[in-house]
Amino acid sequence: MAIVRLKKFLIILFVVGGSAYLAAATYTTADCSRSAFQAAANSASDGDTVQGPLAGGSATWTTSLTTTKSLIINGNGCAITLSSTDGIQMLSTNASVYPRITNFTFGGKDGQAAVRIDGSNPHFRVDHNTFADLSVRSIVINYGGVVGSATQAYGVIDHNTIHNVSGYAAINVYGHNDTWFSDTNYGTSSAVYVEDNTITWASGTASPSQTAVDCEHGGRVVVRFNTITDGTIGLHDTGSSPKSRSCRIFERYNNTFHNDVNDSNADSVLSYRGGTGMDFNNSIPINGSGNHGWAHAIGAEIKRLTCVSTGQCGEPMDFGVQYPDPHAVCSSFRGWCSVVNGSCDSSSDCGGNTCNLTTSPPNDAACGTGYRGITNIDSPTGYPARDQTGVSKDDPATNTQTAAASPAYSWNNIDSNNGNALITGTTMVDYSGTGSYILPNREFYLQVLPFTGATGVGVGLLSARPSSCTPRVGYWATDESKLYVCTATNAWTAYYTPYTYPHPLQGAGGLQGAGGPTAPTGVTAIVR
């Protein structure tokens, strides 16, 4: 071992064999200040570790720690108070290393989120952090995207404790709009996995706006094995946020929900607003009056269709994207300027000209070069609505989608308020607000008893599965933990198997162990 003193740096060099991270370096900061972490990150290379002082500590950050490197950033217990800024922004693009943010406590007033992961790295991990009463979000994934990036950031968010008081989602998962040209690919690593977290609200309400995990802009999200109190798991539909198409796929299972308040607005804990996927093995308290429970497990909605008749939805403006996108669109949900091309909320958005709250763009060209008008992206009859629950991916030649080609499936969801009874029917899904757009045994299939193979989803041993079936009906084989779907009359096909749990990134290479952070071996520098 060699020890070298160099002004304010203490460099310790040593070699340990047998590690996948042998060449990695560890930079230990002298304190928890943002400047110390930033200096260490600037010195580090992809795959290195930047960690706080072993004794922990606290600091106030007025600017964020930013890096374009794929680093392991270990707070070592540092408690960070944010002052109108994000905490850590990591734009990670090196797919050969495993970036990680762990062992911090964040509080105070943040900008967009305390932790932001962007880029195209498929191996990130955010774990064992505490987020306490932040003013905005705790974690955001793929918020900015990477110009020209063909992929997006996928990984796992696990073992975090989030106490939320804001009106924003605790965890927001974005993606790329062009994932709508890709297959669903359920049960794979190509998603953001949110698992083993505890998320709690302290607002005294349980409204649908209290979103534990939200997904939009072509995001792919799996939410599993979490404990969520007074919060929901949401999905944005196309156009309900600026620049965004809907969430692409969702898998929500083995979550335990609690409702500890009396709130008549507690309509539903899950949503069908866009995208398609799986909901199973969730424990959800049901109470129609909102007294320590939700009225429904899932609520269906297509926001632009339910509020467009008013001429002012109060939601999106136009939603192109910041990077090349094969299907850019614009909207006029708020109205359309009488002279200046563009959507508007008021006449002040139109340079003093009139904002016509009931006027759509006259044609695609009015939206701007390369854009398509919102009135032209749904089918000619309006059904299916673009990216609504149950539709297929986009046809690459025509940009059309096939109605009900990829329905959602739900089974084994139980009501913890009523003896863990199976939730089914309209208690499981409230689809009254979507008219003829989202219907059972077309856009979604629910568990039914008894199951004959004609409708819904069956649950049982594979040997008990009926030999006859109607196309798109589902069957969950309990002895295989696999969903079969009837792909043609009386023809069952294996359709979905959940991805490995825990996520492999919780235990990769000894570095990602679920028990907490473990520093790699290599070169260590203590920096200030």
Please outline the major beta sheet. 15 strands, mixed
Instruction: Give the radius of gyration.
Output: 24 Å
Question: Low-confidence parts, pLDDT < 50 over ≥5 residues?
Answer: 1-22, 309-327, 509-528
Task: Indicate the structural class.
Answer: mainly beta
Helical proportion, percent range: under 10%
Average per-residue pLDDT, rounded, comes to 83
* Total beta-strand segments: 43
Main β-sheet, spatial strand arrangement? 1-2-43-3-4-7-10-13-16-19-22-25-28-34-38
Shape: globular
What amount of the residues lies in strands? 25-35%
Specify the number of helices: 3
Distance between the termini: 22 Å
In words, what does this structure look like?
By secondary structure, the chain is mainly β. It has a domain at 303-379. A 15-stranded mixed sheet has the order 1-2-43-3-4-7-10-13-16-19-22-25-28-34-38, with helices on one face. It is globular.
Condensed summary:
The protein is mostly beta strands.
